[in-house]
Amino acid sequence: MKWFVTIIPVILGIFFLYAGGSKLAGQAMHVEHFTGWSYPIWFMYVTGFIETSCAIMLFVPMTRFYGAVLIICTMLGAIVTLVVSNQLVQIPIPSLVLVLAVLTAKNHRSGSFSAVGADTTDISHEAD
Questions:
Q1: How many domains does the chain have?
Q2: Does some domain include residue 51?
Q3: pLDDT tens digits, residue range 71-127?
């Protein structure tokens, strides 16, 4: 399981570095998709910036949790967009990425909160 905790964030990071970078570069495929979904072109660049930022955060252990949480939000938006535009056949990939991001966030949760000085004491069990 240790390999999973290490390799999945790196794979997600590489994936989002490419995905975000290609949006920031304004590749025709992304322009067609965003205009087809009736989104303004500036939203493609914002999405590319968010995806690239997530990728960078995934490469840094202290920010890995936050990068995964942003990916979760981004993938939820992608899935909603695909459902609304009736492109259901494309849903499995963002769904898989969503699951991997949830697992990454779950595995890196405690380290990120302590990195910003938050108290991570488990209060779910009351003392006798």
A1: 1
A2: yes
A3: 999 999 999 999 999 999 999 999 999 999 999 999 988 755 554 555 555 556 655
Q: Is residue 76 part of a domain?
A: yes
Indicate the pTM of the whole model: 0.82
Structure tokens at 40: 């303004």
Domain of residue 102: give its range. Answer: 2-110
* Euclidean distance between CA atoms 20 and 17, whole angstroms: 5
